[in-house]
């Protein structure tokens, strides 16, 4: 019995199977839309990659747990280590990923900063990766950071005797990767005077500071150190648009264990009345809040200047939608949610699938039509004969 192709079971099965595959293909397709400030984020990442490449050329030692091979991860314990803690390694690694420069830039962009704006910056030896990310973002946005740093470092930071944060910064400056350096530095550590740094470490840091042209902040106690730094930022003559803190410096965010519970992110002066609710991961915040009121961050907020806290890194990146950074197994530069917004379905895939489906139907229909027409001609000839 004659049946055209379009009526054959195997042909219909193949057509149905192809269409099911096309539907699955469409359902799994995605559209990648560039996030806002995409170009600036890419530039910031490229800057940070350049910084890291400079260190690798300078024979900076790469530790076995330096996951991204940046030379920015120090040792567990040295003479200049201000806090020994194995639990903070992952946070240190996160900040060494070049994409962290894009993450930092995205926070600065939220502050609506303009080219030439001054920002006050407190850096620490504990997070050299975060320091570099901020420098890269500032370079791309053409900001003017006024930096005061501390040289002591917790585990896995810039805590190697040959490579303190001062050494990293000098290397960048001498090779003209950056056009500015810290205006002053302190020991850091407990009370910002290095109480928890070894005597040998203090002596080593003193020698490095005295050999440089940087001002040395070495006050009798924490309160005097905070006041000295506040005066050195010279708030009366500089119109700061933000205060950026990196790490857990006592002068920046206050003394005691309270700073360990402080959330990272942006705090605006208008939110000062709600600091207890938005800024601490604890129900009992009185003691923490009172110590925070002694800090530089509080002084800047009280002066009407926004505060960016780059701390508690894992929770910070996850709370701001960049959770891929917290997965250190993923080492993909200039990709992820920082750069692209993903939408379900891809219009190009949909149109291609539709074209394939319609084309198959038309081809089978056309071929079946020719079969039927040829069959009809054969029947007419047979009837004449």
Q: What descriptive keywords fit this protein?
A:
14 helices, elongated, 7-stranded mixed sheet, alpha/beta, two-stranded antiparallel sheet, 385 residues, 2 domains
What characterizes the major β-sheet?
Answer: 7 strands, mixed
The secondary-structure element order is HEHEHHEHEEHEHEHEHEHHHEHEH
Head-to-tail CA distance between termini: 21 Å
The number of helices is 14
- Derived from helix and strand composition plus strand pairing, the structural class reads alpha/beta
- Specify the helix fraction band: 40-55%
What does this structure look like?
There is one protein chain. The chain folds into 2 domains: 5-29 and 345-384; 34-340, no CATH class. 45% of the residues lie in helices and 13% in strands. It has helices spanning 9-27, 38-57, 89-96, 99-110, 128-141, 165-174, 199-211, 222-232, 250-253, 275-279, 286-292, 296-302, 313-319, 347-384; strands at residues 30-34, 81-83, 118-124, 144-150, 153-154, 184-186, 215-217, 240-246, 265-267, 307-310, 340-344. The strands form 3 sheets. A 7-stranded mixed β-sheet has the order 7-6-4-3-8-10-9, with helices on both faces. The protein has a two-stranded antiparallel sheet with strand order 1-11. Strands 2-5 form a two-stranded parallel sheet. The radius of gyration is 30 Å and the shape is elongated.
Note the topology:
Elements: H1 9-27, E1 30-34, H2 38-57, E2 81-83, H3 89-96, H4 99-110, E3 118-124, H5 128-141, E4 144-150, E5 153-154, H6 165-174, E6 184-186, H7 199-211, E7 215-217, H8 222-232, E8 240-246, H9 250-253, E9 265-267, H10 275-279, H11 286-292, H12 296-302, E10 307-310, H13 313-319, E11 340-344, H14 347-384
Parallel strand pairs: 2-5, 3-4, 3-8, 4-6, 6-7, 8-10
Antiparallel strand pairs: 1-11, 9-10
Helix pairs in contact: 1-14, 2-4, 2-5, 3-5, 4-5
């Amino acid at each position: 019995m004659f049946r055209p192709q379009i009526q054959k079971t195997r042909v219909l099965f193949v057509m149905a199977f192809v269409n099911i595959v096309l539907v699955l293909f469409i359902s799994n397709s995605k559209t990648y839309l560039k996030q806002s400030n995409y170009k600036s984020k890419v530039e910031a990442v490229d800057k940070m990659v350049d910084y890291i490449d400079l260190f690798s050329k300078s024979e900076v030692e790469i530790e076995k747990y330096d996951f991204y091979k940046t030379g920015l991860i120090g040792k567990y314990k040295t003479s200049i280590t201000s806090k020994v803690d194995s639990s903070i390694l992952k946070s240190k690694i996160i900040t060494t990923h070049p994409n962290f420069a894009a993450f930092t830039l995205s926070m600065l962009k939220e502050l609506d900063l303009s080219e030439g704006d001054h920002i006050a910056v407190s850096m620490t030896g504990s997070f050299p990766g975060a320091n570099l990310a901020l420098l890269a973002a500032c370079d791309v946005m053409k900001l003017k950071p006024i930096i005061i740093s501390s040289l002591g470092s917790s585990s896995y930071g810039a805590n190697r005797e040959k490579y303190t944060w001062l050494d990293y910064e000098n290397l960048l400056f001498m090779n003209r990767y950056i056009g500015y350096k810290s205006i002053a530095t302190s020991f850091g550590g407990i009370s910002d005077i290095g109480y928890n740094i070894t005597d040998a470490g203090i002596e080593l840091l003193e020698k490095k500071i005295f050999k440089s042209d940087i001002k040395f902040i070495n006050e009798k106690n924490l309160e005097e150190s905070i006041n000295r730094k506040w005066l050195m930022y010279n708030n009366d003559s500089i119109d700061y648009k933000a205060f950026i803190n990196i790490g857990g410096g006592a002068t920046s965010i206050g003394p005691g264990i309270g700073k360990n519970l402080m959330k990272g992110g942006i705090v605006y002066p208008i939110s000062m009345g709600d600091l207890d609710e938005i800024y601490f991961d604890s129900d009992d915040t009185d003691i923490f809040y009172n110590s925070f009121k002694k800090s530089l961050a509080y002084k800047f907020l009280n002066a009407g200047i926004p505060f960016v806290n780059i701390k508690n890194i894992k929770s910070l990146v996850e709370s701001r939608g960049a959770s891929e950074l917290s997965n250190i197994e993923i080492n993909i530069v200039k990709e992820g949610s920082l750069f692209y917004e993903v939408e379900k379905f891809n219009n190009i895939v949909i149109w291609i699938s539709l074209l394939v489906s319609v084309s198959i139907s038309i081809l089978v229909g056309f071929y079946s039509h020719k079969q039927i027409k040829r069959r009809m001609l054969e029947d007419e000839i047979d009837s004449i004969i």
